[in-house]
Amino acid sequence: MPKILAIGPYSDDDHAALAALGAAFLDGPEGLGDVAERDAVTAVAYKGHKPFGAAQMDLLPALGLIANYGVGYDAIDTAAASARGVKVTNTPDVLNDDVADLAVAMLLMQGREMEKASAWARSGDWKAKGEYRLNRKISGGTAGIVGLGRIGREIADRLAAFKMDIHYFARSEKDTPGWTWHADPVSLAKAVDYLVVALVGGKDTEGFVSKEVLAALGPRGIVVNISRGTTIDEAALLDALESGAIAGAGLDVFLNEPAIDPRFYALDNVVIQPHQGSGTVETRAAMGQLQRDNVSAFLGGSGLLTPVN
Ligand code: NAP
């Protein structure tokens, strides 16, 4: 009997659906050594951002599949998986709309000062002191997308509908009539008002949005990040936000989540979201379904739906 081990915090619906497939459950990878019958585990349904690497895989000698819940699989060491003949799958596309929606919402919230304006109304200042101060027009600006992949493209499409001129960085030029490709992020940042980061995470993109990129964006620039905390040099970002070297940021992802750097809490030019880009009932249901479909395909011996290695 093949054995599925579901690792991570699952919703009640996902838990029930995984249990119906016969899964056993574990809160996080640190408990792996104590799993009963771990020698029999052939498939892991993985959810979370804690590293899952060679050490964890070696505790599961019969492992053939790690089905990740989420499109970003930077927590999983895919090279170690491939070296052991373990397949990895993710959940692409089903979350593009929600993540792109949140990116645009954070840009609008930051530019239109919606958090501060809301506090102005709620606190009674509106009644006592009058109109909220004028803020900043966002439509019609120039947007720079760092990473024009599945989610980046959805963000660009939305911003184009906001009458923006679209620029982007990717490792090679895409078929994007009317949009401007930049081969390096400094050139992109120089050209735009807003920088929206939609790169993959992981070692290769660590600190990709560097101090130099932020300096090139300049004091009216707004940074939005829905990718991973690792893709921006976070110390440089905090310095730039504190000094006014850039105007503001909208951030869904951070280093050391959820224990984020407390310097962020003191800043009133940052919109902070608790890594909830794909966090809607509808999209999380679709992600769970795709994860389980990959597990079922693996157990049934048919082709994996969304393999990454
Ligand atoms: P994707 O389609 O694979 O696009 C990734 C982009 O990253 C591509 O533009 C790709 O550039 C670029 N890239 C990859 N490796 C690179 C490297 N070494 N150097 C520079 N650029 C590189 O991925 P996606 O589906 O759009 O997802 C993007 C990321 O969003 C995920 O990996 C995940 O981390 C994050 N995400 C966050 C949330 C959230 O809740 N905030 C939700 C879902 C996803 P090329 O076009 O040149 O290949």
Descriptive keywords:
single chain; 309 residues; binds NADP nicotinamide-adenine-dinucleotide phosphate; five-stranded parallel β-sheet; seven-stranded parallel β-sheet; alpha/beta; 11 helices; Rossmann fold; globular; 12 strands; 2 domains
Q: What this model shows, in words?
A:
The chain has 2 domains: 4-94 and 281-300, Rossmann fold (3-Layer(aba) Sandwich), CATH 3.40.50; 96-272, Rossmann fold, CATH 3.40.50.720. Helices cover 34% and strands 16% of the residues. The protein is built from 11 helices and 12 strands. The chain is globular and about 65 Å long. Bound molecules: NADP nicotinamide-adenine-dinucleotide phosphate. NADP nicotinamide-adenine-dinucleotide phosphate is lined by residues 71-72, 92, 95, 99, 147-152, 170-172, 198-201, 204-205, 226-228, 252-253, 275, 277-278.
Describe the structure in brief.
This protein is an alpha/beta fold.
Give, in order, the helices and strands.
EHEEHEHEHHHEHEEHEHEHEEH
- Tell me the span between the first and last alpha carbons: 25 Å
Present as ligands are:
NADP nicotinamide-adenine-dinucleotide phosphate
Question: What's the number of structural domains?
Answer: 2
pLDDT averaged over residues: 97
**In percent, how much strand structure appears in the residues?**
15-25%
Do you know the CATH topology of the largest domain?
Rossmann fold
Report on the biggest sheet: 7 strands, parallel
- Which residue ranges are poorly predicted, with pLDDT under 50 across at least 5 consecutive positions? none
**Name of the CATH homologous superfamily of the largest domain:** NAD(P)-binding Rossmann-like Domain
Structural class: alpha/beta
Computed Rg: 21 Å
**Helix count from the secondary structure assignment:** 11
